[in-house]
Design a protein that fits this description.
Length: 200
């Protein structure tokens, strides 16, 4: 009897430092796909919300401290799990050069604003939304980009926008931006993995 060989799926690792809402969306999205699977989540914070979410979703999770990232432990874990592609989702450490060199062009990040505005070191979470409101912007959104050795400087792959309302607070703006993240990030990651244009 002839059997068809199952196509090998790409293995994704998610790097996360926070609550893990984007990580959870990514896991659920790829469970319905044949292109890739989330095989590992790495976090630098043992008390992060992402740990509880991944436990519920039964996704392998490893804690690697900031020092251990610098010393190469994270790269060793990525090799152990045969990871092909990295997705940053609220990851607050700078990715070490050793990982950048091991995964050239295979690491993407999402930023909660329209780069090149409101990017760089220290610009994450509500810090970004506060800056957007303080600047009087009428529009914000998300940027999905490849990463390089500089914060928020890699090639932009995709952007989506949302309005900034006159009565917005950082929290209300964040909620609107989060919806863009959940809607677009998994699909853009899949497009990049498949070598397709992420301009969806």
């Amino acid at each position: 009897m002839c059997t068809r060989k199952k196509k090998t799926m790409k293995k994704i690792a998610i790097l996360a430092s926070g609550e893990g809402t984007n990580a959870a969306q990514m896991v659920l999205y790829f469970r319905e796909k044949q292109s890739a699977e989330v095989a590992l989540v790495l976090t630098n914070r043992a008390d992060a919300g992402v740990c509880r979410r991944m436990e519920r979703l039964q996704v392998p999770l490893r804690h690697v401290s900031a020092l251990e990232f610098k010393e190469g432990k994270a790269l060793a874990v990525l090799h152990e799990f045969h990871i092909d592609f990295l997705v940053l989702a609220g990851f607050l450490l700078k990715v070490p050069d050793s990982i950048l060199q091991a995964y050239p062009g295979q690491i993407v990040n999402i930023h909660p604003a329209l780069l090149p505005k409101f990017g760089g070191k220290g610009m994450y979470g509500n810090h970004v939304h506060q800056a957007v409101l303080a600047a009087g912007e009428t529009e914000s959104g998300i940027t999905i980009h490849r990463i390089d050795a500089q914060y928020d400087q890699g090639d932009i792959l995709f952007q989506a926008t949302c309005p900034v309302k006159p009565d917005d607070t950082p929290d209300t703006l964040a909620a609107r931006v989060h919806q863009l993240e959940y809607t677009y990030y998994p699909a853009v990651v899949e497009a990049v993995i498949l070598g397709k244009s992420p301009l969806i």
